[in-house]
């Protein structure tokens, strides 16, 4: 395993990018790739991560207080570490729950490690394990094609469309009605073959081959997307009727659910951090509602963390929204704000994003460099293609010495910001930021005309190689205008208050 230093070094096979409290690289946004192997699948738990490679190796890192890394200890691990105990088998799938991990190998063996207080390891007891133990049940069944794990729940979907779940059922989150838990895998059936499954923190969902969506578990806050009548039976799977199209994917977060059809993205449940993507004032949606940002059919993958959401489009672009704490939305080291609508991650404009996975307070992205001269990027109408939080005033405005009107008003702020950015003061976190200088941009850039966002919902295309210069030029102009307007407003306010004060003094001296 090797950690990357510069963009140029990233191999064609791609890299793993980490955001938020991943435990990797001191939780600073970072990237790594593997020597002689290629990352294939990633799964994030609440505070830990599993990585499966093309060669069938399993790498684990993150919190380990329950033994969820399966390395034989309970010590936190801050860099990807190979699970040597599984080296004799090719690992195909992995799923991370809140405190446990499930793994499936090409031999047809399913293993589990970590917290087991509700029997979520499927081993017939409630004792925690610090190394991977075989779940006998699946050695005698059809091959498994998908795994999922929640707070204290586990799920395995076989190739013939049978769904098995085990662990905590206190809220009905494994669909077994009044039973409190299941220490061994149990089949959950609605009489139809299942094609997709997801476990949230305290609720779960699956999709059947005919495109029907079923939810079950904790019924608060609308995260099941069910009508009041159906909520009464929330401890067994209930069909969500608020989506007319066939559902192809579903993902469950902490208090929200996101479903994908061939044409639209739907979300429902809690939205207080913006994780529903419906805008600033939608804190809850009890029924499925379309996420309005994308043209029909653009989104190809959906993923929920505890309080945030990530989407990948057909052109390999990444969008995130929801809780921005610790930078887990991937929008810049200084941008920890919540996003209430799908927000393009400018970090990956030069990459093709293959997969994304979201945890409790982190996110991992698997992406490959976009080849030079590749097809035009297609953006949505409202997309912002560069992150202002990552740039200093000097960079945004160009050479302030050539802009006498801005220089007087901004010089103190620029100096202060550059002092604040000093690597010596803040250590490693800021050493990866762009170098500052007064002459990176010309103040008189002409604005190229290659970008167009059409109002008729037609794709806005950007030739790949002209994207940066276009955005930089627009940014310079817009920022300059906004600063000038700010200065004018301040000047007007100052005059107004001076006038008021003058009037007051005149009245005061007349009376007394």
UniProtKB/TrEMBL annotation:
Task: List the GO terms this entry assigns under cellular component, sorted alphabetically.
Answer: centrosome; cilium; Golgi apparatus
Q: In which broad location class does this protein mainly occur, judging by the first location in its UniProt entry?
A: cytoplasm
Q: Which part of the chain is the RCC1-like domain?
A: 13-205
Pfam entry (one) = WD40_RLD
Molecular function GO terms recorded: guanyl-nucleotide exchange factor activity
One BP term from GO: visual perception
Q: Where are the RCC repeats?
A: 56-107, 108-160, 161-210, 211-263, 263-315, 316-369
Q: Where is the protein situated, by its record's location annotation?
A: Cytoplasm, Cytoskeleton, Cilium basal body; Cytoplasm, Cytoskeleton, Flagellum axoneme; Cytoplasm, Cytoskeleton, Microtubule organizing center, Centrosome; Golgi apparatus
Show the InterPro entries listed in the entry. Answer: RCC1-like_dom (IPR058923), RCC1/BLIP-II (IPR009091), Reg_chr_condens (IPR000408), Signaling_Regulatory_Domain (IPR051625)
Q: Which domain of life is it from?
A: Eukaryota
Q: Which PROSITE patterns match?
A: RCC1_2, RCC1_3
Arranged from A to Z, the UniProt key words for this protein are:
Cell projection, Cilium, Cilium biogenesis/degradation, Cytoplasm, Cytoskeleton, Flagellum, Golgi apparatus, Guanine-nucleotide releasing factor, Lipoprotein, Methylation, Phosphoprotein, Prenylation, Repeat, Sensory transduction, Vision
Q: What is this protein called?
A: X-linked retinitis pigmentosa GTPase regulator
């Amino acid at each position: 395993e090797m950690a990357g230093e510069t963009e140029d070094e990233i191999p064609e096979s791609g890299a793993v990018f980490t955001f938020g409290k991943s435990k990797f690289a001191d939780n600073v946004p970072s990237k790594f790739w593997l020597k002689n192997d290629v990352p294939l699948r990633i799964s994030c738990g609440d505070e830990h991560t599993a990585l499966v490679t093309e060669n069938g190796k399993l790498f684990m890192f993150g919190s380990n207080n329950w033994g969820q890394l399966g390395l034989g200890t309970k010590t936190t691990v801050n860099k990807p570490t190979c699970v040597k105990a599984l080296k004799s088998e090719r690992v195909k799938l992995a799923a991370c729950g809140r405190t446990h991990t499930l793994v499936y190998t090409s031999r047809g063996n399913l293993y589990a490690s970590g917290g087991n207080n509700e029997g979520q390891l499927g081993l017939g007891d409630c004792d925690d394990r610090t190394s991977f133990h075989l779940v006998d049940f699946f050695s005698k069944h059809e091959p498994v094609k998908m795994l999922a794990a929640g707070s204290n729940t586990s799920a395995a979907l076989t190739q013939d469309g049978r769904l098995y779940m085990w662990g905590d059922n206190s809220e009905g989150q494994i669909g077994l009605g009044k039973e409190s838990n299941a220490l061994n895998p149990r089949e959950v059936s609605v009489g139809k073959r299942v094609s997709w499954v997801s476990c949230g923190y305290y609720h779960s969902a699956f999709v059947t081959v005919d495109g029907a969506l079923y939810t079950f578990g904790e019924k608060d806050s609308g995260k099941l997307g069910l009508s009041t009548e159906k909520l009464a039976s929330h401890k067994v799977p209930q069909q969500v009727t608020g989506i007319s199209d066939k559902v192809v994917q579903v993902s469950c977060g902490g208090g929200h659910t996101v479903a994908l059809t061939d044409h639209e993205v739907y979300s429902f449940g809690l939205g207080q951090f913006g994780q529903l993507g419906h805008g600033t004032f939608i804190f809850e949606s009890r029924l499925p509602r379309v996420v309005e940002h994308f043209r029909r059919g653009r989104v190809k993958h959906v993923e929920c963390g505890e309080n945030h959401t990530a989407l990948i489009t057909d052109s390999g672009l990444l969008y995130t929204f929801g809780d921005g704490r610790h930078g887990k939305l991937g929008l810049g080291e200084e941008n920890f704000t919540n996003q209430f609508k799908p927000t393009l991650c400018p970090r990956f404009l030069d990459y093709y994003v293959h997969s994304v996975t979201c945890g409790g307070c982190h996110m991992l992205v698997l992406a490959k460099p976009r080849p030079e001269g590749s097809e035009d990027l297609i953006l949505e109408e409202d997309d912002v293609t560069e992150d202002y939080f990552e740039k200093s005033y000097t960079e945004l405005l160009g050479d302030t010495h050539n802009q006498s009107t801005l220089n007087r008003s901004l010089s103190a702020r620029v100096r202060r910001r550059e002092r604040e950015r000093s690597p010596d003061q803040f250590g490693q976190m800021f050493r990866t930021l762009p170098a500052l200088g007064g002459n990176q941009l010309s103040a008189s850039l002409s604005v190229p005309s290659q970008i167009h966002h059409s109002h008729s919902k037609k794709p806005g295309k950007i030739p790949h190689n002209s994207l940066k210069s276009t955005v930089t030029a627009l940014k310079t102009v817009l920022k300059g205008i906004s600063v000038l307007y700010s200065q004018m407003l301040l000047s007007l306010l100052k005059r107004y208050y001076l006038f008021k004060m003058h009037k007051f003094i005149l009245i005061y001296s007349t009376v007394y």
